[in-house]
Amino acid sequence: MKLLVVSDSHHERDCLIHLKEKYEGNVDAMIHCGDSELEKDDPAMQGFHTVRGKL
Known about the structure:
This protein has 55 residues and is α/β, with parallel strands linked by helices. It has one helix at 13-23; strands at 3-6, 29-32, 48-50.
């Protein structure tokens, strides 16, 4: 199983989009472990399984 795991992207939408373009379809799952600082429905987050961080 191949996973793409990222975290702490802090509003770096372009980075997340680049990662999706490069790896989507080549990995079994994409996981964002938190601190994206983006809304879950932001297009840059689409396709990532996410976890909720502390409030």
